[in-house]
Amino acid sequence: MKPYPEKDWISNFPVAMAYVPWQQLTLTFDDLDEAYEKGTIFPELCKPFSGRRNVK
Description:
single chain; mainly alpha; elongated
């Protein structure tokens, strides 16, 4: 594979736009050990990986 200078390959990507809604984080874990295990201090952001898609 031939290496390309950065300016050559980066110009092939389209410009992207993200939508990130504002989050209202009101609760926090009382136990900091639990928060460390979960990876966040906010229970609203605790979304464990189940290994499958969440299809409605």
